[in-house]
Amino acid sequence: MMQNEDRPDAPDDADAFDRDTALRQLEQTQAELREIARRKRQTAQARARAEEASNPRQFALNSLMAIEDELFALFDTDEKPAEILAYLKKCMPSIPPDDLRHALDAVRKRRGRFDLRAPSPVPATSKARPASARAPSAAPTNKRPAVKTATAAST
After folding, report:
1. How many C-beta atoms lie closer than 10 Å to residue 88's C-beta?
2. Rounded Cα gap, residues 65 and 46, in angstroms
3. What is the DSSP string of 105-122?
4. Which of 120, 90, 96 minimizes the C-alpha distance to 108?
5. Residue 65: how many CA atoms within 13 Å on its side-chain side?
6. What is the DSSP string of 57-105?
């Protein structure tokens, strides 16, 4: 039997195709491609600004913004900022370390990260606050957490 060449190949079970799901996937793909194109434009613009920079701090900032996707990937793999900074210092020795640190800190803030010199954030499940966030107190108070814990455990 001859196959009609004008008709696209279709699965035998036409009911298996979910048009609504396919449309959502198309919209998601379109949004992702739009984001990729936007990032490529930003990278090209940052590279151009780095080439035109008149001082090392601006050059460092624009250079790291040009490679921020790679830096974000490193941050997402829990690479320590100090290790990334050490690598950048080794690869870009003509840029003053303070300018690299400033640029890396700015890139991290663009992604919603914390300052390089700040202590590690406390996990969200913990109720403890970092020492820098606590209010200073004149004298420590004697609390009895064991009694509170025992009471809470018995109820």
Report:
1. 21
2. 6
3. HHHHHHTT---TTSPPPP
4. 120
5. 22
6. HHHHHHHHHHTHHHHHHHHHTT--HHHHHHHHHHH-TTS-HHHHHHHHH
Distance CA 134, CA 119 (A): 14
Quick one: what percent of the chain has pLDDT higher than 70?
62
Listed by start position, the domains of the chain span 27-115
pLDDT at 149 over 60: no
- Rounded mean pLDDT of 2-17? 62
Which residues have C-beta within 8 Å of that of residue 66, sequence separation ≥ 6? 43, 46, 47, 50
User: Position 72: which residue type?
Assistant: F
* 87, 74 Cβ separation under 8 angstroms: no
Q: Which of 64, 146, 80 is nearest to 116 (CA)?
A: 80
